[in-house]
Amino acid sequence: MAFYFASEKNRREVNEDSYCQMELRVNLEASVSAMVVADGMGGLAGGRFYSEAALELWYRELLHTIMGEGFRGCSLHQQIDALAEFSEHIFEKINGQLYKKGLDTGAKGGTTLSAAIHFWDTWLIANCGDSPIYGMKNGELSLLGDIQNVASQMVKKGTTTEGTALFYQNKNRLTEYLGKRGEVHPFFLRLPQDAVDMILIGSDGAFGNLSMTQIEAILNGQRPSRQMLTELFAQSRASGEDDNQTAILFVDEKSEEELLQTDMYQNLKLGDDFQNATAPFCSYTKIPEEKRESGLRERLRRYRFTGGKEK
């Protein structure tokens, strides 16, 4: 597997997005790979506070799941079921904790969170908010997650169509997000590995007003790389987007090898922007300054953080 990522402030003063790509080795044969994007709401420090906190809570609970009795020593199907249960129900727990943090600190806002977990032959797709998750198979793009905003709900009900003035007027009005009072209703999808050869997760600013057809053309127009993501950002800005832009791209290793065998790519080599899945990368979230234990849980936490800086 190969992962690429990029994050830019765009025209905002502060980057309120948080993101992470990680691989947690379970044993010699298996690992849990994941990529997560959280798009903070509330403006400046408030949005960043919520996205950082959501990402940290999500990771800690994932680690707790992997180290728990429902995972260790269990069958493959039980392990996948445990990760599926985590993916589906983690949002309610994060929402409650973020809401409490907001009351305790006085910080107003919230965050979206979109995640994709890969384990053995299964993808687990989940999101709360309007940060899209796209999948690509044989050059065709599809929406894997649910864009939870008023505009998308209006399209589903048939009261407007994508691209109209009414659609864009309601595009930034979220129907679901984390950190609010009351229940949240996230989206969850269990997907076989061979259903996609590419997955793209991003904050809504990464895609701007681009249509799925335009996004598909960008993904098909060049070899997968970080440059592909910056090209996506550039075209999004050209469409009028001024929000923070963050995206993570997964490319199936077999698909990458097949691409490099084509005439178009046979003379190209992987550059410095290539990211090996075993070198996880996180942005913004900090390691607490405290005495660490030497157990497996703590060692896994160390492997998660390899740096990250705002562009």
Automatic annotation (TrEMBL):
InterPro entries: PPM-type-like_dom_sf, PPM-type_phosphatase-like_dom. Residues 2-252 form the PPM-type phosphatase domain. PROSITE patterns: PPM_2. It comes from the Bacteria. It holds the Pfam family PP2C_2. This is Serine/threonine-protein phosphatase.
